[in-house]
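Handoff note, outgoing to incoming analyst
You'll be picking up this chain. Sequence as last confirmed:
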Amino acid sequence: MKLKESFITHKNKDDYMMIDASGKFAGIIHSNATAAFIIECLKTETTEDEILEKMLAKYDADKNIMADNVRKIIDKLRKIEAVDE
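Most recent structure output, in case you need it:
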């Protein structure tokens, strides 16, 4: 899976934003650092398992909690059609 190219990300200090330049999704997505990390991983072809492994290497947190967070964020991105699968 991969983030659609029409979705543009921007970071301003501690504020992470994403917009859809295609106009299909009207709005700005604000996210925290964890969601932004997952979105950055999705800029190249990847899987949920690969994202989870990268998160485990970066963050000191419970694997099950992280796996749940990855799944939730990807599901939200799917709902706005931000992910190519």
